[in-house]
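Request: Have a read of the protein record below and say how the chain folds.
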Amino acid sequence: MFTGIIETVGVVKDLKEELGNLHITINSAIASELKIDQSVAHNGVCLTVVNILDSDSNYTVTAIKETLEKTAIGTLSMNDRVNLERAMKLGDRLDGHIVQGHVDQVATCTKVEETSGSWLFTFNYDSGLNNITIEKGSITVNGVSLTVVNSKRNEFSVAIIPYTYEHTNFNTFKEGSVVNLEFDVIGKYVSRLSTLHI
């Protein structure tokens, strides 16, 4: 379980394909505090630490075929910046919203606007997968807990404050960037219930 409050940004240092899997090595300031088998959200995707390397500055996680097919993790390249969040501790404040680390689908950035000290990012997604946003509801973009503005059937925007812009990989997004989306878990249950004929 995560909160969508990014702890730090890591850098991709190695990518190795093995059968249908992708082993991703990340350099991060939190690597020395990690343990093997620990869950860490990478751009919102919950992955398990499988190795810790190089005097505890690098660690490796593995993305399986299903994860690669349903998320943007497979598009990572060497030296890409990755948003990182360790699982929350029981009893901690929930500063963002309830995030599972289970990406629902990807989206494409269609517009980036600078607006007097903040940024407005617009994303387009496939509404055929029955995921929805609501105005002022929660959405997770690359693991970042955000508030939806301009909610439409297959599009929404988020406003990014300078702190978030500087401390996440939002500062690397441009038109055409592909990102991971996790829709609000409560909204997903309500949407599912509305389609059931009980």
Remarks:
- The radius of gyration is 17 Å.
- The chain is about 10% helix and 40% strand.
- Residues 185-195 form the longest helix (11 residues).
